[in-house]
Specification:
about 375 residues, binds FE2/S2 (inorganic) cluster, DNA polymerase, domain 1, about 30% helix, Ubiquitin-like (UB roll), alpha+beta, 12 helices, 14 strands, Alpha-D-Glucose-1,6-Bisphosphate, Chain A, domain 4
């Protein structure tokens, strides 16, 4: 059954009725005629369909249009007068960063986001950040040179222009679908370390006082239920064993492991440290999550969530690209949203038991990324 949605696309208000299965890319191209958004793989792999949703680059081929109800969407057509996008267009032309141009809208949007966040960028960072955008003809040398030239001398901006216009970025499609309430607003920043560790920070507003929220954080089975794909098998007050299932299309990674949980009552902070192994791929994950409760002046509070993780083994290939970070980011966003809802008694029976990176076809992903690693970027 069709659903009514109202959103902003390139600063124009759009109200329409869409099928729940229609993805954003088809909506933009087919309904609004914005054909600058290209469709390549339609599986969330190539990045050709990247658009900006609430200030964040998103793959519109795996984002349902209905999840964009109330969102602010910017396509490549909406960046005609954008200063950073303008510099990038000139640099792509000067450095031969495009040939057929099929990947170019997605490359420009991803590069612009990188420049806004990082300012002047090193080549290694550009290659890392753009590794989720595939080009099948030009090769990457010209693209990387163009982004480096366009970023030269720039300072990071606190938030992208779209995000600044709307205050704070809202959750991703997965989180939006998982979230029963929009009362909580989460923000996230992800930083990749050079030693294989990735750090991600998340802050979520909770419409409950600090005492109620702190008590809830001690209810470990309920907290665990907020994490899509998590299943706790035992908890003795300090040690936890459990399983975490992450689904990538038809293949599941199922990490079984154990951890320890320590509460610091004085600081209203807790640390969960753990490690697990996926027997299917032989991959290992280790990490820690630190929660800190921050009361606010209005009698409510925020939970500051700091996640630090490292993945080794087959899945580690993806930590090079933006894909695994994007997935972990969505996972923690969904967790934060579910947590905020659960504290106020709005636990969702529909919260997903596992998170899926859309309809990613694992075999395609592996083949493309191996091809990318197996040949020098020319
Ligand atoms: S078409 Fe969306 S990621 Fe390839
Ligand atoms: S320029 Fe043709 S796919 Fe990138």
């Amino acid at each position: 059954m069709n659903r009514e949605i109202a959103l902003t696309v390139n600063k124009n208000a759009v109200t329409t009725s869409v099928e729940p299965r229609l993805h954003l890319a088809d909506f933009l191209r087919g309904e609004l005629g914005l054909t600058g958004t290209h469709l390549g793989c339609e599986q969330g792999v190539c990045g050709a369909c990247t658009v900006i949703v609430d200030g964040k680059p998103m793959r519109s081929c795996i984002m349902p249009a209905v999840a964009c109800d109330g969102a602010d969407v910017v396509t490549i057509e909406g960046l005609d007068n954008d200063e950073v996008a303008g510099s990038l267009r000139e640099a792509f032309s000067a450095h031969h960063g495009l040939q057929c141009g099929f990947c170019t809208p997605g490359m420009l949007i991803a590069s612009r986001d990188l420049i806004l966040r990082q300012g002047d960028c090193e080549e290694a960072r550009i290659r890392e950040e753009l590794s989720g955008n595939l080009c099948r003809c030009t090769g990457y040398m010209g693209i990387v040179a163009a982004v480096k030239a366009a970023s030269a001398g720039r300072k990071p901006q606190a938030a992208s222009q779209e995000a600044g216009a709307q205050q704070v970025a809202t959750a991703s499609a997965a989180a939006a679908m998982a979230a029963p309430s929009k009362a909580a607003v989460a923000t996230a920043q992800t930083v990749s370390g050079t030693d294989g560790w990735t750090e991600l920070t998340q802050r979520v507003k909770v419409a409950a006082d600090a005492e109620t929220t702190w008590r809830f954080l001690h209810d470990i089975p309920r907290v665990a239920r907020c994490l899509p794909g998590a299943e706790m098998t035992s908890f003795d007050g300090g040690s936890i064993t459990g399983r975490m299932v992450v689904k990538f299309g038809p293949i599941k990674a199922s990490f079984g492991g154990e951890g320890t949980l320590v509460f610091d009552e004085a600081k209203r902070s807790s640390i969960l440290r753990g490690a697990g192994r996926d027997t299917g791929s032989g991959s290992q994950a280790s990490g820690e999550v630190i929660y800190t409760l921050l009361p606010d002046a209005a009698g409510a509070c925020e939970i500051d969530i700091r996640l630090r993780y490292r993945i080794t083994g087959m899945l580690a290939q993806f930590s090079r690209g933006a894909l695994i970070r994007d997935l972990v980011g969505r996972l923690t966003e969904a967790f934060a949203q579910n947590l905020a809802a659960a504290v106020t008694g709005h636990e969702s029976a529909s919260a997903p038991r596992e998170i899926s990176a859309g309809e990613l076809l694992w075999a395609v992903l592996i083949r493309r990324i191996r091809a990318l690693f197996g040949r020098p970027c020319t």
